[in-house]
Design brief:
single chain; about 475 residues; mainly alpha; 22 helices; about 0% strand; globular
């Protein structure tokens, strides 16, 4: 694809992840105001907040796995379809009635779960292999820009004259916050339907449209003869990249890739990022007055969001040079180290240093496990395999979020909780260093051959190890 068009296509497609990132924290921004507007007491607020926040991950579970049954209709068409669903159901949240917010939140969950599969899959199939890592990470930048926008929306709220008591309850600012994702959905739907009417060569070839697949490959690989070589490689890989049943995914040939994809999805959540994000607000409120705590928490959370965007943007320009596995391994080490620092500083009431350690942890996570798993899952797995990995990611998210408060309030406390995640960071390091192969610069055929007894010669830089001895021994169990 000539010039900057591939990056514009990446931007348009990644608006689905932007909306997902925005949706993750939008209700953290508006829920106090919504509770005051409806006059909920403390018990009602806790109950409604739990239901509304839980509706998104449950919708995402349905969206991520259910999408696999519709992938035969094309990646581009499905992205447009999810945008239309969001445009229809998101306006329900315009009403202050909690029922409408639950339905809208569930719909956004379906949208988010589907796009966590669609966007990485689409970008992995339309990007030239030399910049596939960069485009994949740039999509994660958009996700974190969505998170940042949602956090910054808190600056628009009416003045708080007392805890959860607002100066102007007639303000409609919260409606603008919940309806904002419609702009991104409308932009992407129009963009994909007009200027970027581009289906992936992999999908076209699977549907028997060989000539059209070649035409699209020539846009991606303009050098003479390069598109034909890629088409031949895609035809060789079609047998392993097609939609498969669960039994086929568990076959000796596909099982290693499913294991790795699920491992990436699980460790991206079990290294503690959601708990750190939650606890950063609590830590920010420590030793602050009630009214100052909220504004300071917004500033600190916005700072974290800005740092996330910068770090992931930086990683986009190094991932295709140093490789995926190196980023994950190094990131795991420094994340574990950061968690240990948080434990030490928190135990000694060194609040400022604890905040700095949180920023360090967030930087290390977003440089590695915050984006690389999205990219590698799309490289390693076929369509249904990606859906299953995404399903495990959301199950892991629910597990972490639901268990963390109970562990933090148990005898081991918050520091014990951080210690658990520091240990899991060490396990994540072992997983990435000794089991995970390097996929930098590899075609679909070369990736599929990683665990074959006689793999094809990889088209990567010299010195890059694409498989691991322990990984070969443990996973290459072909009949």
């Amino acid at each position: 694809m000539e010039g900057l068009k591939i990056y514009w296509l990446t931007f348009i497609a990644s608006l689905g992840l932007f909306s997902f990132g925005y949706a993750l924290t939008e209700y953290n921004t508006i829920f106090s105001f919504l509770a005051a507007l409806n006059g909920w007491d403390t018990a009602e607020r806790k109950r409604n907040e739990a239901i509304v926040n839980g509706a998104l991950p449950f919708g995402a579970l349905l969206g991520s796995y259910g999408l696999s049954f519709f992938l035969k209709h094309g990646r581009r068409n499905l992205m447009i379809a999810t945008d239309i669903i969001l445009l229809i159901l998101c306006p329900l949240a315009y009403s202050p009635d909690i029922i409408f917010h639950i339905v809208s939140r569930f719909a956004i969950g379906i949208y988010s779960g589907a796009n966590c599969v669609l966007v990485p899959l689409y970008l992995s199939e339309v990007s030239p292999r030399t910049i596939r890592g960069k485009t994949g990470m740039l999509s994660i930048v958009l996700l974190n820009v969505g998170l940042l926008c949602s956090c910054c929306a808190g600056f628009l709220s009416p003045k708080e004259v007392a805890v959860d008591v607002y100066e102007n309850l007639d303000s409609n600012w919260w409606r603008y916050v919940v309806l904002f994702p419609m702009i991104a959905a409308l932009t992407r739907a129009l963009g994909l339907a007009t200027c970027f009417n581009f289906e992936t060569p992999t999908f076209l070839l699977r549907n028997g449209e060989r000539e059209r697949a070649l035409q699209n490959l020539e846009k991606i690989y303009p050098k003479p003869g390069e598109a034909e070589q890629e088409l031949e490689a895609l035809e060789q890989a079609q047998g392993s990249r097609k939609l498969t049943t669960i039994a086929e995914l568990l076959s000796p040939r596909q099982r290693p890739f499913l294991f790795l994809g699920i491992g990436l999805a699980v460790f991206s959540q079990f290294t503690g990022v959601n708990v750190i994000t939650f606890y950063s607000n609590r830590l920010m409120k420590a030793q602050s007055s009630s009214l100052d705590a909220r504004s300071q928490a917004i500033v600190f959370t916005s700072l974290i969001g800005t740092l996330r965007c910068f770090v992931i943007f930086l990683s986009a320009f190094v991932i295709d040079r140093i490789g995926r596995r190196c980023l994950l391994s190094v990131g795991s080490i420094f994340m574990g180290f950061s968690l240990c620092l948080i434990i030490i500083f928190n135990a000694n009431q060194m609040i400022l240093l604890a905040r700095i350690a949180i920023l360090l942890y967030q930087s290390c996570f977003n440089f590695s496990w915050g984006g690389v798993p999205f990219l590698m899952i799309a490289e390693l797995l076929n369509d249904r395999g990606i859906s299953i990995a995404s399903l495990f990611s959301w199950i892991s998210t629910l597990t972490v979020v639901s268990t963390a408060p109970y562990i933090a309030e148990s005898s081991i406390g918050v520091n014990g909780l951080f210690g658990i995640y520091a240990t899991l960071c060490a396990v994540a390091f072992a997983f990435s260093q000794f089991l995970l192969p390097e996929t930098k610069g590899l075609s679909k055929t070369e990736i599929q051959a990683l665990f074959d007894k006689k793999p094809v010669e990889p088209a990567v830089d010299e010195g890059i190890q694409t498989t691991t001895p322990l990984g070969d021994k443990l996973l290459a169990n072909k009949p």
